[in-house]
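Running this now, will post back.
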Amino acid sequence: ILVLQIAAESLVPVAGRLKQEFGFDLFLDVTATDWPQRRPRFDVVYHFYSTRDFVRVRLKTQVEEADPTVDTLVPLYGSARYMERECHEMYGIRFRGNDDLRPLLLYEGFVGHPLRKDYPKQREQPLQWSRRTMAGGGSRRRGSHGSAISTPNTASTSHHRPVAPIRSMSG
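Update: finished.
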């Protein structure tokens, strides 16, 4: 795979050339690499694919911890809107021009960026739930993304069917 190390301010022009002149029409992903002891601390890493030539290319740029910001690729690749959200959420990289960097995988109110190497893994996170009463008297808790989680104190047993015992195939 061809890897190009570029300055952050060259990101959009280089990505534009890759798309227009060299046929890299598919934006695969954006992620980051955290190097806590290095300055600049973060590599922001982009992967592109040419469906015409069947080749990949990787762009890498570096950003400082004090201002981990690069320009968005949304004007070039619409799918960048979601991929940049994930990178922002996990590493704290900001994408100038992407107006929708709200959480994608974590819930609203999650504190920190869990893929940074200095993230305290044992940290307790504040949980934000709202209660909704379900038919049958049970209630469920819903996160901000709408996923329902039954808890032992609130789950209704009226919706559960007994499970038949497993019989041996040998007789």
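The radius of gyration is 22 Å. More later if anyone needs it.
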